[in-house]
Design brief:
203 residues; globular; 10 strands
Amino acid sequence: MIEIPSDLNPSLVPLAFLLGDWQGAGVYARVGDTAEQGPDAEKCNFGQEVSFSHDGRDFIEYVSRTWVLDEDGKKVRPLESETGYWRIDKDRKVEVVMIRDHGVAEVWYGELADQKPQIDLATDAVARTAASGPYSGGKRLYGYVKGDLMWVGEKATPDVPLRPYMSAHLKKVANLQEWAESLPDDMPDGVSFFNPDGTPYQG
């Protein structure tokens, strides 16, 4: 179920399905710097932590961190991190500004699908530092499916056409503070989900 915070800016209600902390894993295939290298010069599994949060203003703050995982699912080293801000207008048009740790700043535009929580994005502008690798643009698809967040990214360089390079399946992380605050004040003591006679506590 998608929860809409009472203090969420009304313009962001269509994006409420993104809100929260998410964790999961996916597959990464580095897009080579030239067409000859192809997309599989480096391929690995990765772990990801994502946060979508708000402070009452008309944007959602986005933070993502990823790590290379070994065969046992343990973190090996950082892969990529990015931060950004998401907005949506009355016509369901989505805009995102994003900064990546390897020296790239991007403006993305897209649209929230009709009647389903799915967002298609494509880069409109890309700025790179001298230290960043070749990169000319990308596409992303985000979807909320049975309570999980899934996404796939495509990437292009001046010499390599657009092709998939990252995808992940993320699950929402429980906010224990919010859960605790939601418990009623008259909860029984002890193992508080059951009444003394062993029947489930109804509140």
